[in-house]
Amino acid sequence: MRKVYLDYAATTPVAPEVQKAMKPYWDKLYGNPAAMHSFGQEARQAVESAREKLARFFNFSPEEVVFTSGATESNNLALRGVAKAVKNLTPHVITTPFEHHCLLDTAKDLLRGEAEVTFINLNRNGVVDPNEFLRAIKPNTVLVSVMYVNNEIGTVAPLEDIAKVVRQERDRREKTAAKSQKETLPIYFHSDITQAVNYLPCDMRRLGVDLFSLSAHKVYGPKGVGALGAKKEVQIEKIQFGGSQEFNLRAGTHNVTGIVGMGAAIERISKIKHQKSKIDGIKKLRDYFWKELQKNVTNISLNGSPEKRVANNLNVSFAGVEGESMLLALDQAGVACSTGSACSSETLEPSHVLLSIGLTHPEAHGSLRFTLGEGNTKADIDYAVAQIKLIAQKLRKISGFKF
């Protein structure tokens, strides 16, 4: 049976060159970076080398890159750490209702006495309006957080425009503070950039981002490692205790092998020749996929903006079809996709992302996410379309769906 993987937004395979870079740190260079002896210092050098690779790629300083266990921890540290740094005042956070669960749930938990939170509404295409953030800012707003690319529907947020809003408020506060000679409350812009790194510009300073989060396993690196970028001026406190690692922001022994792998994965992106042609190739294949689906399967609709969308994402609603049933049937046929975020795949609740952009419960339940990657071919897409057509027809007959 043919096997077709169309779930690259959930995770990617570890690239061969990344595996090669990691291998020595499993069995030969196994020292603890916190140790003073030569074994430890070899490991320390590897960690700092990886840090420098990330710093160059994202245009931050090495000391502004904090290694974590992944974007989930990074998002927690960004929101909780910035909120915790505010004293004698209840901080206010602005975000959207279609963030990844790790950020959304953290924001909701902050509502239990630690912070105020405002959730910005989205349009039907899942695109945010920067003016909504301007209207939502309060005197106690300390953080605006918007993901660069939505992990389910692939829509791209206008980071530079949102950053301008944050910067204007920061400038206004500084001018007011200068006149009154009082200390001003900081305001920062954070973005989960996990799904954007492979496909979009990631010069964080140019984009105007103060903090950013990502995971290595979405960029052909290993699982269990990620990073938080935080500018030097960001006031942030640690939320995890036990040691002074990572500039006293993230306690715990370094995952040296994973960190080396993450550095190699990021370096791989920056080194790939004709990166644009690679991205264009994936986008062309994605567009072919959508055209073939439209030709072969009736009563389907695309979720998210057709234009403001990352190159590899296709999120489709199938009328008269239950998404989980279709996913399982496709898996039996060798095609891997998802009904949404892999982190929430064990719940039968409809996608919060799709509900946030106005889909009904049946529409959300009948949606599947297909995400392409470097390993996909036209033959993969042809096979997937054929299987989707057969399975959709079968499930619609069972459900009694009227065309």
Supply database-style keywords.
403 residues, alpha/beta, Aspartate Aminotransferase, domain 1, Aspartate Aminotransferase, domain 2, 2 domains, 7-stranded mixed β-sheet, 3-stranded antiparallel β-sheet, 15 helices, 43% helix, 12% strand, globular
How would you sum up this structure, described in words?
- Helix 1 packs antiparallel against helix 10 and helix 3 runs parallel beside helix 10.
- 43% of the residues lie in helices and 12% in strands.
- The chain is of the alpha/beta class.
- The strands form three sheets. A seven-stranded mixed beta sheet has the order 2-8-7-6-5-3-4, sandwiched between helices. A three-stranded antiparallel beta sheet has the order 9-10-12.
- It folds into two domains: 135 residues, Aspartate Aminotransferase, domain 1; 256 residues, Aspartate Aminotransferase, domain 2 (3-Layer(aba) Sandwich).
